Amino acid sequence: MMKFLLKLLCLIVTFTTTHAWGKEGHEIVANLAWSFLSNATQAKISDLLGFTTSPACEGCSPLAVIADWADAVRHTQRYQWTAPLHYIDVRDDLIPSGCPARVKDTMDERCHFDYVRDCPQDFCVAGSIVNYTNILMTTANHNASVEALKFLTHFVGDIHQPLHASRTTDRGGNSIHVSFDGEDHFVISGRDRRHSQRHLRGGHLHAKTLHGIWDDDIIEKAIDRDFQGSRVMFEEFLQAWLKTNKDYVHQWMACPVGSSQACTSLWGEESFHYAIEWAYRNVDGSEILDGDVLSDEYQQTRRPIVQQRLAAGGLRLAVTLEMALYGKALQSDSFLGE
Ligand SMILES: *[C@@H]1O[C@H](CO)[C@@H](O)[C@H](O)[C@H]1NC(C)=O
Ligand SMILES: *[C@@H]1O[C@H](CO)[C@@H](O)[C@H](O)[C@H]1NC(C)=O
Ligand SMILES: *[C@@H]1O[C@H](CO)[C@@H](O)[C@H](O)[C@H]1NC(C)=O
């Protein structure tokens, strides 16, 4: 009976709109970035934030402690205007045949991130990264610097989540409700389960969406299955992975600074392509539809994409912060040991 009621409740509670990588995804990007920064820049960040550790966040660098702040405040009156700064809506609604899931080479040429069309008045994540990088570089106001650092850390993570630069028509996968094979159709994702009481009262309980699976579930399942539930071990794995996959590193380092709109546009474009080719597309090549049940194979084959996006985000955040706070171009040998 309880289970039935819970299901019913899940069905009727309004689904919340776009989220970011979950808290864990943002912490991973921030901790990776931190590990690549020079000591001088690390010290500058600790100084700005006024702390070096936080009891509330185990295994977190100062950067990881603040990585999720932008999500926490976006529902407050003061910051609700920032909601569109977390994502890119590629206007597939303006394209007659839309942007169906398919492999990259066969996509309609209008299906790509067009800054002028898809980022009005710079109000999208590709614009907000440039904005907050510039603020961090130029402002003399302490509070403005802290705020810019918090936004920047979060948004560089967001733009690397494929479904944060994806189709308008399904709200970045937020209108596509899915479940994993073998799980209850309306299970609440891991993070929400732990907070379900609070969420119930707050009216924020939401069913699983394709968007949420890319924010949270793929990462959580990877950590639970292969890293004994330890986010820190997963981060160490990604660091080691980078050292043996230098081709990726060099590719990501080709345009790594957040002050450049050309670079942030490229990051958004990459995410959009991953969304069309890997997130929206099922293992048999078909479009994922509302109500679909996803296989374990989907999760396993998409996981490398998620890992690459987290690593790319960490790397580019490090380069951007090093440049903005220290005026130095971070070289790949500093973290590859070349
Ligand atoms: C940076 O700090 C670490 C540990 O705090 C230290 O081992 C290392 O020598 C420092 N590097 C430089 C270049 O000062
Ligand atoms: C840039 O940052 C300022 C200060 O927070 C804000 O007023 C403005 O709306 C931001 N613009 C974008 C595109 O992020
Ligand atoms: C900076 O932020 C702190 C805490 O939010 C606030 O108390 C203070 O008045 C702010 N200072 C300025 C100059 O805005």
From TrEMBL:
Key words, A-Z: Disulfide bond, Endonuclease, Glycoprotein, Hydrolase, Metal-binding, Nuclease, Signal
GO molecular function annotations of the record: endonuclease activity; hydrolase activity, acting on ester bonds; metal ion binding; nucleic acid binding
Annotated SUPFAM superfamilies: Phospholipase C/P1 nuclease
Signal peptide limits: 1-20
UniProt-listed InterPro entries: PLipase_C/P1_nuclease_dom_sf, S1/P1nuclease
GO terms of biological process kind: DNA catabolic process
One family name in Pfam for this protein: S1-P1_nuclease
Family membership noted in the UniProt record: Belongs to the nuclease type I family.
PANTHER family: ENDONUCLEASE 4
UniProt name for this protein: Aspergillus nuclease S(1)
Organism field: Fistulifera solaris
